[in-house]
């Protein structure tokens, strides 16, 4: 089963979208395994985005992600990584379709309010990076038989 690391970025927290963003994943039918409000360090931000280290916007990206609290989430479900990317929409919010999180709620790539893992491998890597083992919960949602035949 796939796992995706989803994070409300500091602008999403400051603009009051935490509840709305959690709600969209809950309503879709994915399972929440971890959730916390967190102030990210520069070191963690650099590790999370290490694949982008050579990009000209990298220092700005690290400043942005550490500029205030983020909400860290681990979501589980068959196909959750690809589905979350669709729910989130394109990296540039002006290109993101209406109905997606970025398409509805944001206007600029440098303030695109949410992160979602881009592959199942990165989902596992990022959840291990942002959560301690004791912060992840195994549980059986009562709605499971009503989601999958
Ligand atoms: P994430 O889910 O946050 O990883 O976004 P993404 O997968 O849609 O995009 P990508 O991994 O390529 O870039 C990571 C993040 O870096 C983006 O979400 C933006 O916040 C930021 N970013 C990417 N490109 C630019 C850029 O050209 N300018 C600025 N300022 N930020 C950028
Ligand atoms: Mg990415």
Descriptive notes:
The active site is at residue 115. ATP binds at residues 9, 57, 85, 91, 102, 112. This is Nucleoside diphosphate kinase. This protein is α+β, with helices and mostly antiparallel strands. The chain has seven helices and four strands. A four-stranded antiparallel β-sheet has the order 2-3-1-4. Bound molecules: guanosine-5'-triphosphate and magnesium ion (MG). Guanosine-5'-triphosphate binds at residues 52, 57, 60-61, 91, 109-110, 112, 115-116, 118.
Order of helix and strand elements from N to C terminus = EHHEHHEHHEH
- The value of Rg in angstroms is 15 Å
Ligand list? guanosine-5'-triphosphate, magnesium ion
Task: List how many beta strands DSSP finds.
Answer: 4
- Compute the number of helices: 7
Rounded to the nearest angstrom, the distance between the terminal CA atoms is 16 Å
List keywords for this structure.
149 residues, alpha+beta, four-stranded antiparallel β-sheet, binds magnesium ion
Summary of the model, kept short:
This protein has 149 residues and is α+β, with helices and mostly antiparallel strands. The protein contains 7 helices and 4 strands; from the N terminus they run βααβααβααβα. The structure holds guanosine-5'-triphosphate and magnesium ion (MG).
């Amino acid at each position: 089963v796939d796992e995706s690391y989803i994070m409300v970025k500091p602008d999403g927290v400051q603009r009051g979208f935490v509840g709305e963003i959690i709600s969209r994943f809950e309503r879709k039918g994915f399972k929440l395994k971890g959730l916390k409000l967190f102030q990210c360090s520069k070191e963690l931000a650099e590790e999370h985005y290490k694949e982008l280290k050579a990009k000209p916007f990298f220092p700005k990206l690290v400043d942005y992600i550490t500029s205030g609290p983020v909400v860290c989430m681990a979501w589980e479900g068959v196909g959750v990584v690809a589905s979350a990317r669709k729910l989130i929409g394109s990296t540039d919010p002006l290109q993101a379709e209406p109905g997606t999180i970025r398409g509805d709620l944001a206007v600029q790539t440098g303030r695109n309010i949410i992160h979602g893992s881009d592959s199942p491998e990165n989902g596992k890597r990022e959840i291990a990076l942002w959560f301690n083992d004791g912060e992840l919960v195994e549980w059986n949602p009562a709605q499971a038989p009503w989601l999958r035949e």
